[in-house]
TrEMBL record, chains A, B:
Lineage top rank: taxon: Bacteria
SUPFAM superfamilies: Bacterial exopeptidase dimerisation domain, Zn-dependent exopeptidases
Protein name as annotated: Succinyl-diaminopimelate desuccinylase
Tagged with keyword Metal-binding: yes
Xref: Gene3D superfamilies: 3.30.70.360, Zn peptidases
Keyword vocabulary terms for this entry: Hydrolase, Metal-binding
GO biological process: L-arginine biosynthetic process; lysine biosynthetic process via diaminopimelate
An example Gene Ontology molecular-function term: succinyl-diaminopimelate desuccinylase activity
Pfam family, one: Peptidase_M20
Length: 352, 352
């Protein structure tokens, strides 16, 4: 089994983690190495579910924070092993997100008596279908392993704290018509034409940009699919518009649905899919401290991320990790070495 | 081979024709019987192409009229042999259109010296895909067989003359956008929302109802298909609207296209399919005579029919035949016996 040196140089640890391939579904070798390395430390209780590894202190502190990161990567594109290029580490997984995992593993090893209790979570299947997500599986199988007052996911966040995330809801709007032969179209009622009313609503819609706990969000209401018509000579009796609503975390799923029903008054609407957003939790004392320590203005997270999985357990969560999130999934992904050291430094100062 | 008695009772002939099954693709037995029966008459030249049979007089008249009908039917639905029910003949093919064929066959046999030269056309594959249509095949293979000054198709027309037919054009309108993640929709441009502009045009469009050679047509401009969107979390970069334009026969295909390009100014439009309409030809002296003799107000034909195939050869054409066209293709189709006799009488008085 590969050996991980958790107490050595964090940059060397990042390289080692990257050079153990762990494309989604193939995380076992890395998960075994992580579990084995963590079990060397007596101050940690180590737990395992599939290829997810959880380690936690049990110091009886009043506050518990959770540090989490995923072990898997998107497929390798001839970009391993890692290459050191001046101040950069280049290669698959460097930015998304083994640098963040390396920082957390080193904290786990070195912080024997942190001022908050800490739960470290390293999980599988983040880069694939949501139903496979290892963090989601832990939420279902072992919610008690994830309890805490505040969570940080080590995803790349460009050195700032990215708070919470927006929720998402998909609705199917069904617009009826009356079929007729196209040669006598006035005997029918064209469902596609009537769906123009749905597009009118979408074109006129002004998305909110609310500020929640100091972070500015940006909503969106968009048709993501439209379909109607069965033959070139038939007036269609059905047109379906699928709409995606991205909503700020000051709205819950029920409020989002009520809003859509009001916006689309007169149309038949069915919710097909919804995931709540997550408040950033920056009103928590431990979170405030951390944001001040990072020293940069926190940003709202617009896309839905795994922080929302913590939100379902009532644990506010943010993203904070080394590297530029826009490089994630690119074949040329890299992480700047100074950012790894900065992240390690900030988290250590906060937790020590 | 089945024997057809062309000079006996036209109602008995209708029954005999119906009771020889001739579902599209299976017309050979009936075509053989028709050819054989027509060859008994020395005043007719008989020609054959596949299962289409053409017979014509050669009297050197200044005017030639064409009488045409299809031999095939839609599939039998346990509605053969024909049942006589009071004044009705019930069963597959009675109304669509073996009563009309029977009338024409009797005219072919009896009118040895009509006042116009007459070409009789009995063809296959009318009830299936247009590319198989026997009349279309004759237009391609033997256009000279179909020449004339005026044509009548014996399709059921409820005792009136149905003139010409509308043309049809299908266009594909492609609306572009800029893809983006649905969580950051403002970075993209939603093609489905932009396609709302196409639906605006369609909803505001006022179709023409022009009078052409005394007949009132009714145009239509309708979306018959719409599709856009590739995933529930992506702002679509393409939406396609398929539009069907039904246009009166005072417009040709080029004029119809120019009209659509003007109506949809600013949108990318591609013509995918077009078929010209057909003028009714009611300004022809022979046609005028016939309409007066029928004594009922002629009606515009709105759907595209085989009369347009004659139009492509420069032969104006109308529909005239016994029975209600709305019964065509129904399992309960029937034809009233008096209408068969009326059609035979009117055509005889016109041609004798």
């Amino acid at each position: 089994m590969a050996h991980l040196d958790l107490t050595g140089d964090v940059v060397a640890l990042t390289r080692t983690l990257c050079d153990i391939p762990s494309v989604s579904g193939d995380e076992k070798q890395l998960a075994d190495a992580v579990e084995s390395a963590l079990r060397e430390f007596a101050h940690l209780e180590v737990l395992r579910d599939g290829d997810a590894v959880v380690a936690r202190t049990g110091l009886g502190r009043a506050t518990r924070v959770v540090l989490a990161g995923h072990l898997d990567t998107v497929p390798i594109a001839n970009n391993l092993p890692v290459v050191e290029d001046g101040d950069l580490l280049r290669g698959r997984g460097t930015v998304d997100m083994k640098a963040g995992v390396a920082v957390m593993l080193q904290l786990a090893a070195l912080l024997t008596t942190p001022r908050y209790d800490i739960t470290y979570v390293f999980y599988d299947h983040e880069e694939v279908a949501a139903k496979l997500n290892g963090l989601g599986r832990l939420v279902r199988n072992h919610p008690a392993w994830l309890t805490g007052d505040f969570a940080i996911l080590g995803e790349p966040s460009d050195g700032t704290v990215e708070g919470g995330c927006q929720g998402t809801m998909r609705v199917k709007i069904t617009v009826p018509g009356v079929a007729a032969h196209a040669a006598r179209s006035w005997r029918g009622s064209n469902a596609i034409h009537s769906a123009g009313g749905v597009l009118d609503v979408l074109r006129a819609y002004e998305p909110r940009r609310p500020i929640v706990e100091g972070l500015q969000y940006h909503e969106g209401l968009n048709a993501v699919k439209i379909e109607g018509g069965i033959a070139g000579n038939v007036i269609p009796d059905l047109c379906t518009v699928f709409v995606n609503y991205r909503f700020a975390p000051d709205r819950d799923v029920a409020t989002a649905e009520a809003h859509l029903r009001e916006v689309f008054t007169g149309f038949a609407l069915e919710v097909t899919d919804a995931a709540p957003g997550a408040r950033p939790g920056l009103d928590q004392p431990a979170a405030k401290e951390f944001v001040e320590l990072v020293g940069r203005t926190p940003q709202a997270k617009l896309g839905w991320t795994d922080v929302a999985r913590f939100a379902t357990l009532g644990v506010p969560a943010v993203n904070y990790g080394p590297g530029d999130p826009l490089l994630a999934h690119t074949d040329g992904e890299f992480v700047p070495v100074p950012e790894i050291r900065t992240a390690l430094g900030n988290l250590t100062r906060w937790l020590i």
